[in-house]
Amino acid sequence: MTDAAVTYASYLKIDELLALQEPRSSGPEHDELLFIVVHQVYELWFKELLHELDRVRQWLESDESHRAQHTLKRILSILKVMVAQLDILETMTPLEFLSFRERLEAASGFQSDQFRQIEFVLGVKSQAAIDRFPEGSRARVALERRYREPTLWDAFLRCLSREGYVVPPSHLERDVSAPAEPSPEVQQVLLVVYRDDPKNAELCERLVDLDEGIQEWRYHHVKMVERTIGAKRGTGGSAGAAYLRETVGRPLFPDLWEIRSLL
Ligand code: HEM
């Protein structure tokens, strides 16, 4: 007996995929399908982004920074699509959202473990984010692993050090679960990179693009939240837009922003 030939539907598991959208509102309300689809698409992009971020870190660990740069370009293209995608959900009016909002109960993007994983790889780590997930769950295991792993920034500094730059040992051997603090010593290294090393300076610029791209997503998301639910509390239990506003504009790679004033 031969296996059935691979088809578009069998390869991509289309039947399974199309069965994954289950509105909770009665009717169901027209806009709930859009809400579910947009969130599911985001989770797929988050998955792909993590896949590529891991790749960039590996390229840096094996001193193949030209390849890291190539993968970063892909990441930036994905991020642009992710930011633009919020426009689609913004076509939903406050009343259209209210038609099914209460059926979300406490569900919120705040609980997206993949979003937290992306933050962890980029250096925004917290034990509290891990503790929200049940012991032994897929989400918690993944977050615990990433909590212990070096961040993208750690990998970049180690790569610079192997290339001969004098990165302080305190940065190379730091506790990788702690937030990366701005460092005048690292900034001195980066100033030399920007002045004399076009290859690594280019890589730094792509990291700034990535930092800016994440901030753009946060900004666009909070604006969407403000126009959809105003100052109401979030379904995830936070103060809503007021909480989200605090997260906008916090750089991932503070040293790369600091040196702009020093160049
Ligand atoms: C009408 C659409 C949306 C509204 C009204 C909304 C509202 C909110 C609110 C109020 C929060 C704060 C946490 C809370 O208390 O719930 C939040 C957080 C969050 N949302 Fe949304 N959201 C929407 C769409 C989306 C979409 C499409 C995504 C994509 C995955 C998303 C991802 C997130 C993430 C990752 C957080 C956590 C942000 C952080 O902690 O820094 N949201 N959202």
Would you give an account of this structure?
By secondary structure, the chain is mostly helical. The chain is 65% helix and 0% strand. The longest helix is centred in the C-terminal third of the chain and has 32 residues, at 198-229. The radius of gyration is 21 Å and the shape is globular. The model has no long low-confidence stretch (mean pLDDT 96).
Terminal residue distance: 69 Å
Number of strands: 0
Number of helices: 14
What letter string, H or E per element, gives the SSE order? Answer: HHHHHHHHHHHHHH
Mean pLDDT: 96
Structural class: mainly alpha
Q: What value does the Rg take, in angstroms?
A: 21 Å
Helix and strand arrangement:
Layout: H1 8-12, H2 14-18, H3 32-61, H4 65-89, H5 94-101, H6 113-121, H7 127-131, H8 138-148, H9 152-162, H10 169-172, H11 184-196, H12 198-229, H13 241-247, H14 254-258
Helix pairs in contact: 3-4, 3-6, 3-9, 4-12, 6-8, 11-12, 12-13
Q: Which short descriptors sum up this protein?
A:
263 residues, mainly alpha, 65% helix, globular, binds protoporphyrin IX containing FE
Short précis:
This protein is mainly alpha-helical and about 260 residues long. It has helices spanning about 10, 15-20, 30-60, 65-90, 95-100, 115-120, 125-130, 140-150, 150-160, 170, 185-195, 200-230, 240-245, 255-260. The N and C termini lie far apart (about 70 Å).
